[in-house]
Write a structure and sequence with these properties.
Blueprint: H1 3-15, H2 36-41, H3 51-65, E1 78-87, E2 92-101, E3 106-108, E4 121-124, E5 130-132, E6 136-137, E7 142-147, E8 152-158, E9 160-169, E10 182-189, E11 195-203, E12 205-211
Parallel strand pairs: 1-12
Antiparallel strand pairs: 1-2, 2-9, 3-8, 3-10, 4-10, 5-9, 6-9, 7-8, 10-11
């Protein structure tokens, strides 16, 4: 990361209340069960009950235990925002993607040392208006050595995480009139032993102004 881009990233992080890493004790479940305690309450004698009857029993159990029947959603745990900033009087700049997660939640790193470990993917559609390099994190991921879920080292990002990529505009392309089609794929895991898939999450990229290169 060049010195100019580091300064831009640091200013951006400071403006958005800083990077707040949070380390979670204990493994995350990979099975995406929304109601593990509820499953334990359903007796084995209900096996073979018609689906609509089972759903009714589940709803009644949720009501009697005071648990909301509203399933958690991805947006309850993670928010995305993005902008691009350009150097004054130049064709170069940076695209900044902020991933804000609730405390304790995490996403996988962009790269892993073991190919069997999941990754987070940030993709930008190719365009004649600009060229863009690959995204990198402003802060290194937290690496858990020999994670028992994968028997391998696993890199994760916690809390509020900034990713950035160098962008160069084509000749004649107006600086503030750029359409960047950015999407994120991967998964997020929470302290509630839930994991949500992040599938083609589209993130609008707005123009964030200029900075002075040094």
């Amino acid at each position: 990361m060049g010195s100019d881009q580091i300064k831009v990233a640091r200013r951006y992080i400071a403006r958005n209340n800083g990077y707040q890493p949070c380390i979670v004790n204990g493994p995350h479940s990979r099975h995406g069960n929304h109601w593990p305690p509820l499953i334990q309450q359903v007796p084995s004698t209900l096996k073979g009950v018609p689906l609509f009857c089972f759903n009714l029993i589940v709803a009644m159990t949720l009501q009697s235990t005071g648990v909301s029947s509203q399933e958690p959603k991805l947006e309850d745990y993670i928010q995305f925002s993005a902008e691009y900033q350009m150097e004054n009087d130049r064709r170069g700049g940076v695209v900044l993607l902020t991933v804000a997660m609730v405390e304790g939640s995490c996403i996988y790193a962009l790269k892993q040392s073991n190919q069997q470990v999941p990754v987070t993917s940030i993709r930008v559609e190719s365009s004649d208006a600009f060229s863009i390099e690959e995204f990198i994190p402003a802060e290194k991921p937290v690496v858990k050595k020999n994670d028992p879920d994968f028997n391998a080292d696993v890199g994760k990002h916690f809390g509020k995480t900034l990713f950035w990529a160098r962008i160069t505009l084509a000749d004649g392309q107006p600086t503030a009139d750029l359409t960047i089609d950015l999407s994120v794929n991967g998964s997020i895991c929470t302290t509630d032993e839930m994991c949500f898939a992040i599938r083609d999450q589209r993130v609008p990229v707005r123009f964030g102004g200029f900075y002075e290169p040094k």
